[in-house]
Amino acid sequence: MPMTFATDTKAEAPLPAGSFTYNSPDKVGLMLVNLGTPDGTEYGPMWRYLREFLSDPRVIELPRWIWYPILYGLVLTTRPRKSGANYAKIWNREKDESPLRTYTRGQGEKLAVRLGDLTNVSVDWAMRYGNPSTRSVVEKLVSKGCDRILTFPLYPQYSATTTATANDQLFRALMKLRRAPAVRSVPPYYAEPVYIDALARSIESHLATLDFEPEVVVASYHGIPKPYADKGDPYQQHCLETTRLLRQRLGWSEAKLISTFQSRFGAQEWLQPYTDKTMERLGKEGVKRIAVVNPGFSSDCIETLEEIAQEAQEIFKHAGGEKFAHIPCLNDSPEGMEVIETLARRELAGWI
Ligand SMILES: C=CC1=C(C)c2cc3[nH]c(cc4nc(cc5[nH]c(cc1n2)c(C)c5CCC(=O)O)C(CCC(=O)O)=C4C)c(C)c3C=C
Ligand SMILES: [Fe+2]
Ligand SMILES: [Fe+2]
């Protein structure tokens, strides 16, 4: 008797969970991916979000046997409450969700409209941690018949802690599928003219609304631990190149536009100069008026709305500063959507 295998496709057996038939082939799924965010500010959702995020070995590289006792014994017993209180300060109460989710949804919906002429492209948006999960969105796209997926990690500067782990998660989702789609990933865009130009226009138009002219504009990027950069993560170079190009485009001096790194976590050294220490230094040196922009964040989020617009402002003013402005991220503004649409169309070449 011939041997039969569970993988034989001729039999009329029901498809196992996680498998899909194609309604019509040659559809392309375009998935925007951002970092992720908690479902609520209470202890439970904060704990679940932080556990998923901080269990990622791309984010915390310590051996698990060292990290897990610290994570479960210390971090997850204290940080959910502390971070939850900070999220509560910036929560979108109308939609009962974090601003990061609101803006990422806005980017997805607006991109779908902008790409309306591409009838074989289905646009969606997902998170690396939390909801909507990368896996649920991949399954949705595949069930719609997408046999190709273009994933768009919404990080202008590459880091293994963000871009690479977003792509890891996509491939983890594909591992569950018998018939996996072909995939492409949008490369980092830290030096793309369309991105630099969008940032410059956004900065110029925001500064024009202020009742003061900043003496210094601080480009504050999320940090990473210094050892990650020392071992070859190109993130710092990408950030510094964005600032250099932005300076060139705006015609500003090195003293007018400076780069700093924010959001330190844990005891090790992170990329320097630190944003909070720079706020203090500028205030103490007699600088009275500054503006802060966050070119590395495609959406405003806790790190920009709480840590910069609130905390950094307080530090600067406490140190003697007088005027402070936070320049919003590109979000789903026309300038921001121009960047996303241009890169998406370029990376879809040959598929549409
Ligand atoms: C070791 C820890 C962390 C690394 C490395 C890290 C890198 C990194 N993160 C972003 C972007 C975002 N981070 C956000 C929040 C956030 N980041 C960390 C830790 C690390 N990030 C934590 C613990 C948190 C949660 C908030 C808190 O408890 O402080 C967010 C905002 C999410 C939101 O819901 O608003 C973004 C965006 C980048 C770009 C990056 C490395 C390049
Ligand atoms: Fe972070
Ligand atoms: Fe922070």
Automatic annotation (TrEMBL):
Broadest EC class assigned to this enzyme: lyase
Alphabetical list of CDD domains matching this protein: Ferrochelatase_C (cd00419), Ferrochelatase_N (cd03411)
Compartments where found: Cytoplasm
SUPFAM superfamilies cross-referenced by the UniProt entry: Chelatase
Pathway: Porphyrin-containing compound metabolism; protoheme biosynthesis; protoheme from protoporphyrin-IX: step 1/1
Reaction catalysis annotation: Fe-coproporphyrin III + 2 H(+) = coproporphyrin III + Fe(2+); heme b + 2 H(+) = protoporphyrin IX + Fe(2+)
GO MF term set: lyase activity
Function: Catalyzes the ferrous insertion into protoporphyrin IX.
Protein name: Ferrochelatase
